[in-house]
Every structure is written in structure tokens, then in C-alpha cells.
Design a protein that fits this description.
With 327 residues, the protein is mainly α. The chain contains twelve helices and no strands.
Length: 327
């Protein structure tokens, strides 16, 4: 009798511990996966897109200034409307980046330098136009402006590229299924098998010792454990959404890396540039918003672990009570 009671107690403790451990591992992995979409949607994606918008507008502004200086319309009175429109768009994007960039302190310093250089660049462009009648002096100021924006390593575009690389690196950390996360999910997928196998063994042992063929509480516990693979599928769908969002953002940002503000003509109106950025932003938000529903279901995991523990207790309690007062 004492041996049977100790067996039942050991079975109960084992089932409860295994169920809670499996739920804890699943919840940790699930929560990590579903915390990331909000951070990407609300912070990282806007930061990447605003840097891309600022860079594109600056390139077009520089090309517009160059074309204006080369035209017969320049009269020394000031910049033309196209240049001013592009520069306003670039300045607006840079002001948004200040609150959204995700490159931490280094990103803040880089952005401050870019803003300071932009002031110097605008001054050089203004002087080039102001001295348009003096070809040599105007050419010198124009060369200075070109150097400020295009200089490798320390120019405005190079610094924005560096900031964008840091942000894309952060984006990768938030969205990629790293080796550590892959290993964690490997264990998560196997975790429910342990308490499920333990329930099968307990059910078999109970059939040998008691007349009851099947324990309904333990069968329900098995059903809950089988249902625990649903969050694994939901998390996989969320990871696919993160991967798709990363591809959208990289497709916008990477083609700009290293490109100089040189070419035959400005590449599209500011409205077209903003439309491309807005399109990417909309697609990213749609993809990541689809993951919010499964993110709200995270509470089902600890509830499921508790349910398995309670069902295990209920399934064994009746047999434990039979041996409580027996000699």
C-alpha cells in the first residue's frame, strides 16, 4: 500500500513539474517572437524608411542644384523651387529620424553630424548660385558642396549609409531566426513530448493497478498537450511575417548604399519618392499587424500548463485518497 501511494505521489509531482516546465519554455519562446513585431513596426521600420527618404531627397536636391547651376536660368537670386522642395523633404525626414533612429548613442552622434554638415552644404550651394556670374568662384563653391555630400566615409551620404547599416543590423537582430532562437524552438517543439509520454506511462501503470481502464482527466491533459503545438504554428507564421517585413525594408534601403549624388537627372519627384516609402511602410504594417492576433493569445500557454497540472492532480487524487488511511 505504501509503495503504491508513493508511486502515485511521484507520478503526480512528475506530471506537474513537467507540464509547468514545458509551458514555461513555450511561453518564453512565444513571447520573444511576438514582442518583436511591435518594435519593428513602431520604431525600426519608420527609422529605416525615414533614412531612405532623407537620402533619396538629398540626392535629388543635389542633382537639382547642379542642373540649375548649369542652366541659363541661374541669376544669382537664389535656388530654384525643385531644389528647395527636395531639401524640405530631406530636412523633414531628418527631423523624424531624430526621435526614431535605433542606432543608439552612436546613431545620435552621426545624425547630429549629418544635420550640421547639411547646413554647411546648403551654404555652399547658396554661395555657388550667388556667385553664378563668376564662373571660377561658383565652380569652387559647387565643388565644395559636392565634396560635402559625396565624400567617402565622412560625407553626408556616407554618414547616412553608416547610420542605415547600423539600423539594418538592428533590424536583423529583431527579425532573423538566429541560431540561438532556432535551437530554442527545437527544444520547444520537443518539450510537450516529455509530459505527454509521462502521461501515457502513468495511464498504463494505473490500468495495471486499478480496475478503471482509462482515466478521463489524464486523457484531457493529453489533449491539452497536443493542442500546445498550435502556438508553435502561430509563432512560425509570425516569424514569416518578420522575414517578409525585413525583406521589404532591405529592398528599400540596400540599393541606396554607396550611391553618390551623381547622374543625368533627379530621380523622380518628391511625391514619387514619398509614395515608394509609404508603400513599403504600408506593406510592413499590414504584414506585422496580422501577427498581433496571435500575440494576444500568449496567455493561453501558462493557462494550458496550469490546466495540465490540475487535470493530473484530479486524475490521481481519487487514487491517492484510497491509500491515505490504509495501513
Amino acid at each position: 500500500m505504501i509503495g503504491t501511494r508513493w508511486l502515485l505521489v511521484t507520478q503526480l509531482i512528475s506530471l506537474v513539474v513537467l507540464a509547468l516546465l514545458a509551458a514555461a519554455v513555450l511561453f518564453a519562446a512565444y513571447d520573444d517572437t511576438h514582442r518583436r513585431p511591435a518594435a519593428v513596426r513602431d520604431r525600426t521600420a519608420p527609422a529605416v524608411l525615414e533614412v531612405a527618404a532623407a537620402r533619396g531627397a538629398l540626392v535629388n536636391a543635389h542633382l537639382a542644384a547642379r542642373d540649375h547651376l548649369a542652366s541659363e536660368l541661374v541669376d544669382g537670386a537664389g535656388t530654384d523651387e525643385t531644389y528647395r522642395t527636395y531639401m524640405a523633404a530631406a530636412t523633414q525626414s531628418l527631423s523624424r529620424i531624430a526621435d526614431r533612429q535605433v542606432a543608439q548613442e552612436e546613431g545620435k552622434r552621426e545624425l547630429s553630424t549629418v544635420i550640421a554638415l547639411l547646413v554647411v552644404y546648403q551654404e555652399a550651394v547658396g554661395r555657388a548660385i550667388e556667385h553664378a556670374e563668376d564662373e571660377a568662384l561658383s565652380r569652387a563653391w559647387r565643388a565644395s558642396a559636392d565634396t560635402i555630400i559625396n565624400r567617402g566615409g565622412t560625407g553626408i551620404l556616407a554618414r547616412l549609409d553608416g547610420l542605415q547599416r547600423d539600423q539594418l543590423r538592428r533590424l536583423g537582430e529583431q527579425t532573423e531566426l538566429t541560431d540561438a532562437r532556432r535551437e530554442l524552438w527545437w527544444w520547444v517543439e520537443k518539450a510537450p513530448l516529455v509530459p505527454l509520454l509521462a502521461l501515457v506511462v502513468v495511464q498504463w501503470q494505473l490500468q495495471r493497478r486499478f480496475p478503471q481502464r482509462l482515466n478521463p482527466f489524464l486523457l484531457l491533459a493529453c489533449a491539452v498537450l497536443l493542442a500546445s503545438w498550435l502556438p508553435v504554428r502561430w509563432a512560425a507564421d509570425t516569424q514569416k511575417g518578420l522575414d517578409e517585413a525585413r525583406r521589404e525594408l532591405v529592398a528599400v534601403a540596400e540599393p541606396q548604399q554607396g550611391a553618390k549624388a551623381r547622374g543625368e537627372s533627379p530621380r523622380g519627384e518628391p511625391e514619387e519618392t514619398r509614395t515608394a516609402i509609404t508603400g513599403a511602410r504600408t506593406r510592413v504594417e499590414e504584414v506585422l499587424d496580422e501577427t498581433s492576433g496571435s500575440g494576444r493569445l500568449a496567455g493561453l500557454i501558462p493557462a494550458g500548463g496550469a490546466a495540465v497540472a490540475l487535470l493530473s492532480w484530479a486524475g490521481l487524487q481519487r487514487h491517492l485518497s484510497q491509500y491515505r488511511f490504509r495501513p
